[in-house]
Amino acid sequence: MMTRRNTLFSLGALPAAVATVAGLRGLFASAPALAAKTWEVMHSDAEWQKLLTPNQYSVLRKAGTETPYTSPLNKEKHAGTFSCAGCALPLFSSTTKFESGTGWPSFWQPLDKAVVEETDTTLFMKRTEVLCRRCGGHLGHVFDDGPKPTGLRYCMNGVAMNFKAA
């Protein structure tokens, strides 16, 4: 039965649904900054797909996010270096890794000149995206709720990195 309340709800829900669908298109699309910049290491989309696993490609090239608690690097406790899975640039020292309880490898500081940070407005919020300085690969995001001495939490996708023990 059509009532005034149902009619008003339907009319109000339509623009919201359209806006949601339009917004969702951008949630998992590659970051505009990634495509627009020139990086030291560059490959065509087809080349990246051949060089990376499907999960690595989804995260590094399309700004995806791995499922929490699935990366073996989350539990990595050895001394060593975490590097970009796309170009092998060293990114983080194991000395800055900490257990954040989020399900992703977390660090309080990257190596010097290893990453660049960009504003990310997907998911209807403003965050700081972390990219590999050399290939522009999406690594994760940085938040201001980390431990001392920086107070930062670089929340990284494990699939975007490789680990080499010292």
Shape: globular
Please identify which CATH superfamily of the largest domain we are dealing with.
Peptide methionine sulfoxide reductase
* Helix-and-strand structural type: alpha+beta
Q: What CATH architecture label of the largest domain applies?
A: Beta Complex
Poorly predicted ranges (pLDDT <50, ≥5 residues)?
A: 4-11, 13-33
Oligomer: single chain
pLDDT averaged over residues = 85
DSSP summary: helix tally: 4
For the biggest sheet, the summary is:
6 strands, antiparallel
Pattern of helices and strands: HHHHEEEEEEEEE
Q: How many structural domains does the protein architecture include?
A: 2
Structural commentary:
With 166 residues, the protein is α+β, with helices and mostly antiparallel strands. 26% of the residues lie in helices and 24% in strands. The protein has 4 helices and 9 strands. The strands form 2 sheets. The protein has a 6-stranded antiparallel sheet, with no helix packed on it. A 3-stranded antiparallel sheet has the order 2-1-9, with no helix packed on it. It is globular, with a radius of gyration of 19 Å. The model is unreliable at 4-11 and 13-33 (pLDDT under 50).
